[in-house]
Design brief:
mainly alpha; elongated; Znf_C2H2_sf; metal-binding; zinc-finger; nucleus; C2H2-type domain-containing protein
Length: 103
């Protein structure tokens, strides 16, 4: 029973889609992310980075393999959809109806 509770754990350390859409996919930021300086703390010395998935790969071969993976293709498909705005999130939570009652 304990194993059933922990079967679907969220991936730690990944960026949200809205952060990637608004910040990382900007042409200036994308160019800076793809041409990072050597960093000995990151995998592959920060030379092989997938902007869409916010993931570092060890080698160029691993990065090319990642680009062909289902995970990368799903992430790219999700990034093509527009990000939710704050107003849409509030409407979905029912906060707009509460504001109308107060006014």
């Amino acid at each position: 029973m304990l194993n059933e509770m922990f079967t679907e754990q969220p991936v730690q350390g990944t960026r949200d889609l809205d952060q990637i859409q608004m910040i990382d996919l900007d042409p200036k930021n994308r160019a800076a992310l793809e041409a990072q300086a050597l960093d000995y703390e990151k995998p592959g010395l920060a030379q092989h980075y997938c902007v869409e998935c916010a993931k570092y790969c060890e080698t160029d071969v691993a990065l090319r393999s990642h680009w062909r993976s289902k995970l990368h293709k799903r992430r790219c498909k999700a990034l093509k959809e527009p990000a939710y705005t704050i107003e849409e999130a509030e409407r979905a939570a029912g906060l707009e109806a509460e504001r109308d009652m107060i006014v």
